[in-house]
Amino acid sequence: MSIEISHVGKRFGDFVALDNVSVSIPSGRLTALLGPSGGGKSTLLRIIAGLEHADTGRIEIDGVDATRLPPQKRNVGFVFQHYAAFKHLSVRRNVAFGLEIRKRPKDEIDRRVDELLALVHLQQFGERLPAQLSGGQRQRMALARALAVEPTVLLLDEPFGALDAKVRKELRDWLRRLHDEVHVTTVFVTHDQAEALEVADEIVVINDGRVEQTGSPDDLYDRPANEFVMRFLGPVTQLDDQLVRPHDLQIHTRPEPSTVAGRATRITRVGFEIRVEVTTITGQVVTVTLTRNEFLALGLRNDAAVHLRIAPNSPTTAVATTDQPSSTSPSLAASH
Questions:
Q1: In a domain, 324, yes or no
Q2: Where in this chain does the record put each ABC transporter domain (predicted)?
Q3: Are residues 93 and 167 in the same domain?
Q4: What range does the domain containing 260 cover?
Q5: Using CA atoms, how far apart are residues 172 and 316, in angstroms rounded to an integer?
Q6: Most buried of 86, 96, 254, 272, CB within 10 angstroms?
Q7: In terms of domains, do 174 and 288 share one?
Q8: Quick one: pLDDT at residue 303?
Q9: Is the pLDDT confidence value at 223 over 90?
């Protein structure tokens, strides 16, 4: 079921949470709303769910005007960051809750709950209380409960934000596989760039209440619309007046056409990559990332004379000034 968001605006007092936002969310796809904290992404998700009402604009779900519909009439499943489980009910009863209040037949409820517990790999934990599950298991239970009523749209608000990094990685891999099985139109909010790039079919980058860019992970990473998108979706460094990914810079030990001269002023190994800081003849600090084999082939050492060039066909974005020395932005998995 597709979602059309047209010219939506939302204020909280003097604070503009959303400013004339228009987005098309394709049917059956997994779409990430990505951006920094306070950018408006959770507000937009809550407006889609009907938990907040837009001041201006229109929301359509599968061609139906849902702008003023209450949440229970939108057939939307919603999963919060902190599970919102019924602590006194078993896992099985938590998953069945939505079906029970809709007064579905008991055999239908039992069959549906069995299917969902198997789908989220919790069939052996059906009689446990939520407190007896791990954080990742509780989040899978919350997803099963949201899917029980067969929603046309599944909305996830920072679904893995309360979990540690290892469990978060496991769950986002699992969410991608789950989505490929159930094919429900899914929208999830995250500020984790790696999460969006790994899981989503489409990414909507939201900042200061406005949409900066919409597209596939490849589109946004390789063809960023502006400086904000390029900085937010991955590491960047600056050479002259161009922002560029550190892995898209080439280092030469001899002058080459269109290269910038400098010296290697710091060399650091970080796991599988080597980070080389180069100070150019103009005093600009540029970070280059190399594989171990590339580094060894160059034979670099501290204070070595080097020459930098942006690799052909690499994504770049012009910046207004080059007054400040540049450094690499936080890693893809870092929080903003």
A1: no
A2: 3-233
A3: yes
A4: 237-318
A5: 29
A6: 96
A7: no
A8: 93
A9: yes
Residues 147, 176, single domain; the answer is: yes
- What confidence tens digit (pLDDT) does each residue in 153-172 have? 989 988 777 667 777 777 77
How long a stretch of residues is the chain? 336
Quick: pLDDT tens for 66-124: 999 998 888 888 887 665 678 889 999 999 988 888 888 999 999 989 988 988 888 89
SS3 letters across the chain? CCEEEEEEEEEECCEEEEEEEEEEECCCCEEEEECCCCCCHHHHHHHHHCCCCCCEEEEEECCEECCCCCHHHCCEEEECCCCCCCCCCCHHHHHHHHHHHCCCCHHHHHHHHHHHHHHCCCHHHCCCCHHHCCHHHHHHHHHHHHHHCCCCEEEEECCCCCCCHHHHHHHHHHHHHHHHHHCCEEEEEECCHHHHHHHCCEEEEEECCEEEEEECHHHHHHCCCCHHHHHHCCCCEEECCEEECHHHEEEECCCCCCCEEEEEEEEEEECCEEEEEEEECCCCEEEEEEEHHHHHHHCCCCCCEEEEEECCCCCEEECCCCCCCCCCCCCCCCCC
